[in-house]
Predict the structure of Phosphodiesterase/alkaline phosphatase D.
Amino acid sequence: MKLQILFLLSLASTANASWSKNLNYRSPSEHHPSLGVSISRVVKRNDPSSSYDAAALNFTHGVASGDPYPTSVILWTRVAPESENSNSNVTVSGYAPLFDHANERYVSVSKSPICVEYKVTSDKALSAMVDSGKVYTSSDVDFTVKVEAQNLKAFTTYYYQFAVCNSDNKSPTGRTKTTPKPDDDVTEVSLAVYSCANYPFGFFNAYGNIVRKDSVDYVVFLGDYIYEYKNGYYGWGDALARIPLPNKEIFSLYDYRKRLATYRTDLDLVASHQQFPWIVSHIRKLPPVWDDHEVADNVYRDGAAELNNTEDSFLKDGGISVDQRKMNAVRAYFEWMPIRQVDMDDNLRVWRSFSIGKLIDLVMLDTRNYDRSITDLYWNTDYINQIANDGGRSLMGSRQENWMYRTLSESAKRGATWRVIGSQIVFSHISREALDQSGGNGLNLDAWDGYQSNKNRTLHHLYSNNINNNIFLAGDSHASWVSDLIWLDKIDYDSATGAGSIGVEFAGSAVSSPSPYGENITLATANKYSSIIEGSNDELHWQDLFYRGYFELHFTKDKVNANFFGIPDIRKKNGWEIPLANFTVENGANRLKRPVAGGVVESGSLKFGKMVQNNLTLDTSNGKWFDSSSV
Ligand SMILES: *[C@@H]1O[C@H](CO)[C@@H](O)[C@H](O)[C@H]1NC(C)=O
Ligand SMILES: *[C@@H]1O[C@H](CO)[C@@H](O)[C@H](O)[C@H]1NC(C)=O
Ligand SMILES: *[C@@H]1O[C@H](CO)[C@@H](O)[C@H](O)[C@H]1NC(C)=O
Ligand SMILES: *[C@@H]1O[C@H](CO)[C@@H](O)[C@H](O)[C@H]1NC(C)=O
Ligand SMILES: *[C@@H]1O[C@H](CO)[C@@H](O)[C@H](O)[C@H]1NC(C)=O
Ligand SMILES: *[C@@H]1O[C@H](CO)[C@@H](O)[C@H](O)[C@H]1NC(C)=O
Ligand SMILES: *[C@@H]1O[C@H](CO)[C@@H](O)[C@H](O)[C@H]1NC(C)=O
């Protein structure tokens, strides 16, 4: 104890810097304290006589913000003596020895921590100071810094910057925005919705386009921020010089850190984090929705696709237990993402809701990791087919299910105009016959279709309580799907008018992960399959398999406009995008506005409408339109 006090006193030049205000020393979960870093042990280990030269430190991965509240927002950066990640294992010993990369060994005494100061201002020139502070970082948290900017005004834009204390070594300037207070009557809010970014498959141009257009308030991310595979297993990065490091399947804390760091070298991803708060969350919960690949493929509550549901198989997964691997993934994700510590009371739950004024309640589900029953693990597809309609199956676990129903009811009661349900996976039914005819490869059993009773209970809750204006969002499928939300075979539905529908579903394509029909599918083949799939599902109004991309949602009290964008070329870095289709949902209508998409789309298959391929492409980097089919 005495030692620590002496040590802290000796840091006179960085007086008032705080360890604990760097949130990354904490556990990602209040209820998993062993995932935190023991600050007293870190303090003891550091050598106060030896410090880093400020000029030798780098802000290696830009800045980021996220989890906006009405009065605060999370700010992130990383400042390190090298771009290499820390090889420390927090969970082994409560603190982390420093790895000396030059000599390939762990050292028990390390240089003194890095003091980082931050300021938050209301102006871009960084002069009108609103909040500031000083914190430490060290190898124990992979030199990441995460602080909560406080005393902010609701629904207001702020700018922020980090610097090595008492030096000119500064980070880039970031921009962020708080959310409105739950009772604020905001007139307009826009979200960009993303999922499924796979580094070796291509450039993350989609992330950068909203920066160049400056078209939204917040980014909502629906899962698969990283993939856990080695290069060549899913994604071939050699030709693009995009090798996902470390080049192996990832298991250890170091592996997850390194993989996240590699993804965060994509300049469009860096730019998106620098300009927009990534949503998400409302009350202390982790991570912005999290699909399966941040941990491992097709995770369910007792394991993952590459394991079988047996005790033995849990114990060893790349030499470490599934639990340890999950913890490593969570710890690294917590260090690298601008997210708050969560109140994960059990099973690393990440579901939560989020109010954006009176306009929107965003209900973020965890349909991946929390508590779902056995899923399609590829070898058991027939079995899952047989039990998909079993009443006892849950995608979410009963606690999360009940929480969702309660949250939706409370949202309707408080009079929020729109209920936006962020599920990772597609909710609407997709006919198996259509998938088979089009050579589809089991797209849907890992989605809500494999959990029919959970789906029925959700629809029952919405219909029987007259809960209106429901917008389901999904990612995961690497294709676009726009549907009226219906209870198939239970409530009469008229495809032409939309009568009988209780909302809509907007499911978006991937940032770069390939079409489920193959990376190199031709436009003509993709559109042929889309028309088979669209044609055999009454409620599915638009489907596209060809384009990688994202969508924007523009909310007002009267309506929601959804704009889908396709990225014509992810094999090089560019700012191109093609507006694919636009949809409107009017307040109280609970269905897509007719004629759906105005009767015409650029790609895919539109029910009651046509596809006119004009190839008009916007170059978001200069605002000019051109014909991308000629390039
Ligand atoms: C920091 O960045 C500069 C300029 O980008 C580079 O020359 C230097 O090698 C970097 N230092 C480290 C330790 O990575
Ligand atoms: C951390 O974990 C990795 C992989 O599990 C292991 O190779 C390494 O030796 C561990 N480091 C420490 C300091 O325990
Ligand atoms: C899991 O079980 C299936 C079916 O018995 C078998 O084909 C597969 O090899 C097993 N996988 C592992 C990792 O044990
Ligand atoms: C769900 O509802 C459908 C009607 O849409 C019905 O056919 C099916 O049996 C129900 N399944 C369960 C498990 O409730
Ligand atoms: C798709 O095409 C690219 C470029 O020609 C090639 O490198 C890649 O291997 C192809 N992918 C598949 C799955 O055939
Ligand atoms: C969709 O709206 C955008 C404007 O946001 C417009 O440029 C584009 O032409 C529209 N696309 C279609 C297919 O109607
Ligand atoms: C758009 O490009 C496609 C494929 O290259 C071509 O078939 C089509 O004719 C083009 N459309 C127009 C309006 O030029």
Observations:
- The chain is about 20% helix and 25% strand.
- The mean pLDDT is 84.
- The radius of gyration is 24 Å.
